[in-house]
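Hi R.,

Here's the chain you asked about this morning:
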Amino acid sequence: MAVNWPGLLSLCVFYMMILAMGIWASRKSKREEKKCTGNRSEVTMVGGRNLNIWVSICTMTATWVGGGYILGNAEVVYDPTKGLVWATGPLAFFMNLVLGALFFVKPIRSKNYVTLMDPFQEKYGDKVAAVLFIPALLGDILWVACILGALGGTISVVMDISSALAVCVSAAVAIVYTLMGGLYAVAYTDVVQLSLMLVGLWLCVPFILANPSSANITVAAVTKLHQEPWLGSLELEEAGRWVDDLLLLAIGGICYQAFYQRVLSTATDAQSKLTCYVAAVLCPILAIPSLIIGAAAASTSI
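And here is the predicted structure, written out as tokens:
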């Protein structure tokens, strides 16, 4: 197996940059801990409730826009049995963030909670909260597995290195900077990763569309009638499944601890709601490159 050395070098530089950002954020976390009137857990979990609004917007967006989101959108458009109409993620996450801002931000912030489990513990006691924690934990484990799986698969294809190695290194880096800086490290590294993702994906689009091997996606969508076009189709008998997919992401995401961690990390309710609304707009926008790439792949394969 031939290793792509320039790609491997760029990956090492990226991880070093992320680690450096994590170290800087850990120092900032310690400074904030001295100024914070609450206990240490508030600095670690919710950034001392004083996270910069722009950083908060980026980390809220990055909560949903990750490897699974990017690859999933492209995969759905590429799948000949689905197509663009089945790419419910962008719409679902828009709905999720708007619903969260309208109905959940103020109640969850009014009592200075730290985690999603706090209101359940307060209302129903420790035992019920402990039981409810289990599905929340499983959801987080599966979400992390999805992100790492997407990353490992991508790196193994692009750089010809082991998928398992890519997953292990990525997980180790994430664990190190999270342990060092808590939410501050996660939030500030999210800014870097989201920026690189935005630039990198849009940089790929013109090369993919202009490549001689790629088909014209507009022509393929209209003229290749003998096969399923990348636009996809939605039959009446499939409407229930489509709505179920949409609501699973839109409503299910409201039960996600990472969402409330970002909601609770800002200084005011207004900032928290603004974070949700801006992230709701950014999520569909950041899906556009992967949707185009999926359309190009589907058109070329026809």
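One quick note: The mean pLDDT is 85.

Cheers,
M.
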